[in-house]
Amino acid sequence: MTDTPKILYTLTDEAPLLATHSFLPIVQAFAGSAGVDVDTRDISLAARILAQFPEILGDKKVNDDLAELGELAKTPEANIIKLPNISASEPQLKAAIAELQKQGFAIPDYPEDPQTDVERDAKARYDRVKGSAVNPVLREGNSDRRAPLSVKNYAKKHPHRMGKWNAASKSHVAHMDDGDFFASEKSVTFDHNGKVQIELLGTDGSDVILKAKTKVLPGEVLDCAVMRADKLAQFIDEQIADAKAQGTLFSLHLKATMMKVSDPIMFGITVQRYYKKLYDQHGKLLARIGFEPDNGIGDLYAKLGELSEAERSAVEATIAEIYAANPGLAMVNSDKGITNLHVPSDVIVDASMPAMIRDSGGMWNAKGELQDAKAVIPDRCYAGIYQVVIDDCKANGAFDPATMGSVPNVGLMAQKAEEYGSHDKTFRIPHDGTVRVTDDTGKVWMEQDVHAGDIFRMCQTKDAAVADWVKLAVNRARLSNTPAVFWLDANRAHDREIIQKVEHYLRDHDTSGLDIRILSPVEAMKFSLARIRKGEDTISVTGNVLRDYLTDLFPIMELGTSAKMLSIVPLMAGGGLFETGAGGSAPKHVQQFVAEDYLRWDSLGEFLALQASLEHLANTTGNERASVLADALDVANGRFLDNDKSPSRKLGGIDNRGSHYWLARYWAEALAAQDSDAELKAAFTPVAKAMVDGEAKILEELIGVQGKVVDIGGYYRPDTTKADAAMRPSATLNAALASLQG
Ligand SMILES: NC(=O)C1=CN([C@@H]2O[C@H](COP(=O)(O)OP(=O)(O)OC[C@H]3O[C@@H](n4cnc5c(N)ncnc54)[C@H](OP(=O)(O)O)[C@@H]3O)[C@@H](O)[C@H]2O)C=CC1
Ligand SMILES: O=C(O)CCC(=O)C(=O)O
Ligand SMILES: [Mg+2]
C-alpha cells in the first residue's frame, strides 16, 4: 500500500469521549513518531444527529462519518478503534436535540406525532439515529471478547469486592410462560437470492404491507415471533402482585436501547400496568398532554407543567397512592427519586443484571438501601440464564474473583445477525389479523396470528456470518486450548436452524482434540458456572443477544467491570474493528466529572484495543515500527496492571488522566528500552526521562485540579477547547508530548 497506514479513532459520547480528550493526544504523538497516522471520525450522538440535516445546516453541516466508517468496515483496509457510544432512547434523543438547538443549530424538534410530510421526514431521520444505530453498522464481523491473561491475573491478584449472597435471598427472575417471543417463534432457512414481503391481512379484510422488500440470500435463516400484548400485561400484573406479596422490589430489565423498537413497547406496557390507576382516574388528562408511557414515567413528570395546579395535585396524589399500594420499584437514583420505570435507557439488562448479581442480588430501594428484587425479564429466550446464576449464588455463595475461571465469548453479530437487525422488521400491530411473510414467487414462508397491540418481529441471520462465527470459535478453542460451548436451544425454532448450520460448518474444520459442545443456554450456564467455580475456563459461543449479556455478566463478576475486556471484531472483509471494553458510556461518570473534576472512567479497554490495532496494522501493512509500538504497548499494559494504575475510586487519587500519564510513561520507557529500532529508541529516550523526572510535578498538576465544578460547555456536544483544557491540566505532561512532535 502506498498510503500512510492509518488508524481511525472514534469520537463518541460521555465518559469515553472525555477520556479521549486526554488519551488521543498521547496516541497521536506516539503513533506519529512511528509514521502511523491516527485520524478521528465523530460518531457521537450529536454528530450523528447533525449529519442528518445537511441542507438545513448550510456552512455548519456535518459529515456523515458513521456512513463513511460503515463503508470502510467492508474493506480490508479498515482499522478502526471504536469506543462506546450512546444508543439513544427517545428521551435522550430529545435532550440532545434541545442542546444542539441551544448551541445554534437550527434543527427541527423531534416530531412525536408527525402530521405533515416535512415532519414525517424529520422523524424518519431522527429515528435513524435512535437506539443502537452505530454498532450494527460497524460490526461487519463477529466478536471475540475476552480478558487477556495479564488482565485475568491482575484481577486474581487484586480481587474486587463482591457482595455476599444469602441462601435466603428472595431475589429471582420472573419470565412469561406463554405468549412471549419464545412461544411463537417460527424459523426457516431461505433457498434463493430473492426478497420477502411482510404483510398484515386484517380480520376485517384489509391488507397492509408492513415491509415491502427485504433482501434474502440462499441459506439465510429467517425467523419471526410475536409478543402478545394482553399476555404481557397480565404477566406484569401478576408480577406486581407477587412482588408485593413477597416483599421484594419490582424491577424490569430490558434492552430498550439496542432493541429500539420492541423493548420500548414492552417497557411502556409495564409502565401502564404499574401506574394503571393513573390511567383509570386521569386517562383524559394523560392523553391531553401526550404522555408517552414508552418513554417512561419521567415523560409524565416532564409534561406536568402543562396541567393546571388542581389537575397536577390530583395526578400527584394518585401517584402517591400507587406507590403506597404497589411494591417498591428498584431505584436508579434514590436521592433524586428516579426509578427503574423513569426512562427506558436507565436500566439496561446486560449491565443491570450483573450489577444486581454483584450486589448480593439486591437493588436500591427508595431509602437508598439494597433490597431483594424481582427481576422481570419477560421473554423466555434468554431470561433463564440469570436464574441459573442466582440459584448458584444462593447455593454456593458469591463467586470469588481471586480464584474463578473465565468465560470469554465468541459472538455472532456480523451482518446484523438475529435480533440485532430486526428493527425495520418489528411492528406494533395496529389491528387483529395474520402476518404473512411471502417471497417473490408468492410462496408463504411463515405466518403469525396477531392481535392489536402485539409486537411482531422478524430477524435475519446470514449464512456467511454463521460460517465465519463457527470458524472463529474453532480458532479460539484451538488457540487457547479451552472447551467451547455453543449456547443453542433445540427447543427454539431459530436455534434449531442454527444448530444444523453449526454442525455443518464444524465439519469444515479440524476439531480433533477439541471439546466443542452444543448446550441450551440454561445447561450451558450451569456447565460454565461449575467450571469457573473450579477455576476453569470455558468459551461461550453465542448468538447476538447472549453475546451482549454474557460479555457484561462474566467480566463484571470476574474483573469488576467490563471496561477491562479485550474486544475485537475481525471484520469479514479482512479489516479490524477494535472495540474498547464491553461496557457502555457510563453516564454517571460524567455527572461526577462535572461536579468534582474527577473522572473514574477506566481506559484499559482503550489501551488493549490500541495494542491490538497497532499489531493488526503491522501485520497487514508490514510496518515494522507499528510492531515495535505494539510490543512496547504490551509491555506498558503489563506494567500498568502490575502496578495497579487504573483510576482509584476516590478524589485525591489518580483518575482517568493520571492513569493515562502512567500508561504513556510506561510506553515511552518500553520504547526507550527496546533495541529493534534505534530511531524510535532515540526519540523516546528523552521523553521517557522527562516523564520519569516529571512524575511528582505531573501528578501534582493532575491531582491538584480535582474537587471543583468543571464547565465543559455541553453534555452531548461538549466544547472542544473547554474539554481539552479540563482533560489536559498538566503542562509538564503536555510539554513532554509536544517534544515528540517537534
Ligand atoms: N459498545 C457500546 O457502544 C455500548 C454502549 N452502551 C451505551 O452506554 C450507555 C450506558 O449504558 P449502561 O448499560 O448503563 O452501561 P455502562 O457500562 O455505562 O454502565 C454500567 C456501569 O459499568 C461500569 N463501567 C462501564 N465502563 C466503565 C469504564 N470504562 N470504567 C469504569 N467503569 C465502567 C460502571 O459501573 P460501576 O460503577 O459498577 O463500576 C458503570 O456505571 C447507554 O447509552 C448505552 O446505550 C452500552 C453498552 C455498550
Ligand atoms: O449497541 C448497543 O446499544 C449496545 C451494545 C452492547 O451493549 C454490546 O455490544 O455489548
Ligand atoms: Mg453490552
If you had to describe this structure to a student in words, what would you say it looks like?
The chain is of the alpha/beta class. About 45% of the residues lie in helices and about 15% in strands. A hairpin with a 5-residue loop joins β23 and β24 (about 575-580). α17 packs across α18. The longest helix has 20 residues, at about 15-35. The mean pLDDT is about 95. NADPH dihydro-nicotinamide-adenine-dinucleotide phosphate binds next to α15 and α21. One of its GO terms (biological process) is tricarboxylic acid cycle. This is Isocitrate dehydrogenase [NADP]. It is an enzyme of class 1 (oxidoreductase).
Supply the key terms.
four-stranded mixed beta sheet, about 45% helix, about 750 residues, ten-stranded mixed beta sheet, binds NADPH dihydro-nicotinamide-adenine-dinucleotide phosphate, binds magnesium ion, 24 strands, alpha/beta
Unreliable residue runs: none
Radius of gyration: 26 Å
Q: What value does the average pLDDT take?
A: 96
Major sheet, described briefly?
10 strands, mixed
Output the structural class.
Answer: alpha/beta
* Strand order in the largest sheet: 2-1-3-24-23-4-15-22-20-21
Tell me the β content.
15-25%
Span of the ends, CA to CA:
27 Å
Overall 3D geometry? globular
Helix content: 40-55%
* Number of distinct beta strands: 24
The ligands bound in this entry are:
NADPH dihydro-nicotinamide-adenine-dinucleotide phosphate, 2-oxoglutaric acid, magnesium ion
Number of distinct helices: 28
